[in-house]
């Protein structure tokens, strides 16, 4: 696998052509409650012209001229949503940096304060040391502005993240391409699966979903809703059913239907519960009875608000489930979005996508430059 950052393509490609950081996106859709799905017929778009009135008689007085209506607010593109989502992280860093460097020279004391600040923001010890080293070059005992510090921070964050920013690619040689989605309780794993199905459907891929979180009725119902939304078949069983048996049945059916992708949900597992981790390993063993190469990808969904605990989660799931890539959610809910930088520096696992909200459009392919600018420059 190349160490160079891959260009965007494959997964998200159809969506990203329509939604880029330079283009306007459709408004983020709110999550539909599992209770119902409502279909609304498309309404004619008001183009500002409307239906022409019948012509007035020649002598009729002209109708009063109305003031033009206020133009509708522009919808936010992905980069604007990313900046807004990371506002807690960027604001905290900007304020703390300004507090250190306003009218102060760059000496050993200020560098130590900055390093401590960056570590507290969960950027990691190695990244913090690299940033302070980069600042010290040619600037020792000179005044430096907070803006210069943030520019160096952005450059070093992008340097760390660029090698891991890789799109999620689907190998057409596997039918189906099996993606196992793992993570602890509350990370947004089931919702992320629905959003992945949505994106893949946009690319014209046939998707099947296995509702493998058999402990939660809500998770099963939620995936059924996503299945109806995206035209994806959902394989589900009663609450409490054997997860490994369900995975076996889902892969068998996906092969019979010649599906492009099989997404398998799993129960949220605390990484320190050995029994639950053993069950996850059993799911993988069962899949390999049908396809020795399955699962072809194992995605770990992480909640950014968990901070340093996310590092431990990556360690355990990588060992037990063979994690191949990461998706980080809830970056809009924390002032410590820098944890993604620390994880990338330590594990070098591909980061496929990040989430900054609940809407279907709030999960997008990960871009190192966008993230670095949003977190450091605001």
Structure notes:
By secondary structure, the protein is an alpha/beta fold. It is 42% helix and 10% strand. Helix 3 runs antiparallel to helix 4. 42% of the residues are buried. The model is unreliable at 1-9 and 13-75 (pLDDT under 50).
Summarize the structure.
The chain has 378 residues and is an alpha/beta fold. It is 42% helix and 10% strand.
Tell me the span between the first and last alpha carbons: 33 Å
Number of helices: 13
Q: Which value, in Å, is the CA radius of gyration?
A: 24 Å
Instruction: Report the structural category.
Output: alpha/beta
Oligomer: single chain
Helix content: 40-55%
- Counting DSSP E segments of at least 2 residues, the number of strands comes to 8
Question: Uncertain spans, ≥5 residues at pLDDT below 50?
Answer: 1-9, 13-75
Shape: elongated
- What is the residue-mean pLDDT, rounded to a whole number? 81
Q: N-to-C SSE series?
A: HHHHHHEHEHEHEHEHEHEEH
Q: Give the biggest sheet.
A: 8 strands, mixed
In terms of DSSP E residues, the strand content is 5-15%
How do the strands of the widest beta sheet line up side by side? 3-2-4-1-5-6-7-8
């Amino acid at each position: 696998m190349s160490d160079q950052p891959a260009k965007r393509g494959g997964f998200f490609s159809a969506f990203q052509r329509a939604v880029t950081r330079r283009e306007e996106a459709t408004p983020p859709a709110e999550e539909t409650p599992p209770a119902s799905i409502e279909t609304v017929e498309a309404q004619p778009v008001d183009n500002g012209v409307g239906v022409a009135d019948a012509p007035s008689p020649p002598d009729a007085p002209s109708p009063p001229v109305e003031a033009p209506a206020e133009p509708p607010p522009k919808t936010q593109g992905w980069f604007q949503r990313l900046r807004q989502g990371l506002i807690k992280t960027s604001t905290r860093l900007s304020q703390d940096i300004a507090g250190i460097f306003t009218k102060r020279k760059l000496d050993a004391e200020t560098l130590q304060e900055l390093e401590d600040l960056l570590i507290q923001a969960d950027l990691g010890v190695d990244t913090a040391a690299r940033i302070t080293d980069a600042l010290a070059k040619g600037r020792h005992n000179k005044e430096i502005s907070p803006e210069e510090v943030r520019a160096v921070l952005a450059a070093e964050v992008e340097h760390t993240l660029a090698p891991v920013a890789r799109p999620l690619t689907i190998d057409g040689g596997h039918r189906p391409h099996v993606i196992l989605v793992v993570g602890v309780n509350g990370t947004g794993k089931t919702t992320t699966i629905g959003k992945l199905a949505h994106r893949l459907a946009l690319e014209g891929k046939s998707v099947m979903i296995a509702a493998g979180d058999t402990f939660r009725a809500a998770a099963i119902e939620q995936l059924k809703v996503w299945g109806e939304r995206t035209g994806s078949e959902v394989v589900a069983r009663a609450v409490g059913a054997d997860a490994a048996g369900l995975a076996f049945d889902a892969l068998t059916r996906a092969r019979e239907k010649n599906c492009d992708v099989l997404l398998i949900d799993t129960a949220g597992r605390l990484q320190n519960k050995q029994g639950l981790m053993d069950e996850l390993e059993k799911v993988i063993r069962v899949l390999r009875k049908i396809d020795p190469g399955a699962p072809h990808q194992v995605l770990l969904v992480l909640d950014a608000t968990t901070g340093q605990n996310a590092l431990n989660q990556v360690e355990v799931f990588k060992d037990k489930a063979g994690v191949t890539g990461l998706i980080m959610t809830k970056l809009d809910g924390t002032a410590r979005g820098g944890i993604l930088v620390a994880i990338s520096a330590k594990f070098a696992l591909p980061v496929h996508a990040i989430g900054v909200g609940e809407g279907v459009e709030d999960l997008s392919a990960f871009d190192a430059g966008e993230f670095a600018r949003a977190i450091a420059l605001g």
